[in-house]
Amino acid sequence: MERVDPRDDIEGYPKLQNDFELERRWSRYGLDPLPRLLYQRRGPSARFRSYARLTRAFYESIRAASGKPVIVDSAKSPVRTFALSMVPGIDLYAVHLVRNGRGVITSLRKTLKKDVQAGIMWDHEGRPMWKTAVRWTVLNLASEWVCARLGPGRAMRLRYEDFVADAASSGEPLRVGHNIGGNRTKKSGYLTLRPDAREWEGTLSPAEQRLAWALLGWLMRRYGYGR
Q1: Who's near 112: CB < 8 A, 6+ residues apart?
Q2: Positive or negative torsion for Cα 1, 23, 97, 42
Q3: What pLDDT was estimated at residue 26?
Q4: Half-sphere exposure of 182 (CA within 13 A, CB side)
Q5: Alpha-carbon distances, residue 93 vs 151, 155, 218 (angstroms)
């Protein structure tokens, strides 16, 4: 395991993560650290070197404690993925998981009230279609860009619908396992997956479906989705 440099302050690690991974003060989509990371590629600063040392030590600690040779990080930010790819000693492979944009619109328009027992830790206001459409487009294009930077054999694209259909083909329930943050499914014990049945067709009106395709169809075609 790599020893942490005495110059690195573990207490300051969350701030370093915000600087190079997660900061959202200026960008609704969490992409604002990207120019900063591109600059760091030209010549890493002392702060980035500290971030890299602490990040590698963090993952080495997880590997040592778990005894597993591979760590799966369900990062939702392509910028975080890009940051990890710049850390010496991390052998990074990425999966770009995409979902039908109309399914994402349907999912994110739901309003959920806080219910700790059900695993809902705060109120969730339904997101209007245009906001979901912009976010879906920006994050998928950014993910494509990051995967291209990783190079051949280091990244793949997987459709959510194909993954669920494959996982559901056995008909066996899956034991729920999730990260620390989790969501409301983590308290359910077991989860039975069912193939995507284009449920958005019964939720979005015909006009909304046409609008969604007008906004997202150009990119969904690239991912193999049809009208």
Answers
A1: 120, 123, 124
A2: negative
A3: 43
A4: 16
A5: 10, 6, 27
User: Which residues on neighbouring strands pair with residue 97, listed in sequence order?
Assistant: 158
Q: Is the entire prediction scored with pTM above 0.85?
A: no
Question: What secondary structure letter does DSSP report for 28?
Answer: T
User: Which amino acid belongs to residue 51?
Assistant: Y
Is residue 59 within 8 A of residue 83, CB to CB? The reply is no
| pLDDT per 10-residue tile (average), the chain, 227 residues | 59 88 57 80 90 94 93 87 94 96 92 56 72 94 95 94 84 66 58 78 94 97 95
Task: Specify the amino acid at residue 8.
Answer: D
Neighbours of 226 (CB within 10 A): 8
Residue pointed to by tokens 């939702």: 76
Domain ranges of the chain: 1-92, 98-227
